[in-house]
Design goal:
The chain is mainly alpha-helical and 69 residues long. 68% of the residues lie in helices and 0% in strands. The model has no long low-confidence stretch (mean pLDDT 85).
């Protein structure tokens, strides 16, 4: 699966600040366990679910951003 979308979401400044996600955690982030922390796990599960439903990257990104605000 594509880990790039997960990393793009994690690079959002507001998200990273709120959940204390640093660049090292982002570089290690992937869509499969083990996860660095809970927020990465939640986002990975959401992204995998949406990708299986064939939603586009932009739609998935916007849905995830709406969940975390």
């Amino acid at each position: 699966m594509n880990n790039a979308l997960l990393k793009e979401v994690l690079r959002d400044k507001e998200l990273a600040s709120k959940y204390k996600i640093n660049e090292e955690m982002i570089s290690k982030a992937k869509l499969a366990p083990p996860y660095e922390n809970e927020i990465i796990e939640y986002l990975a599960v959401i992204i995998k679910s949406k990708m299986l439903d064939n939603h586009g990257d932009v739609t998935v990104y916007n849905q995830v951003r709406n969940l975390i605000r």
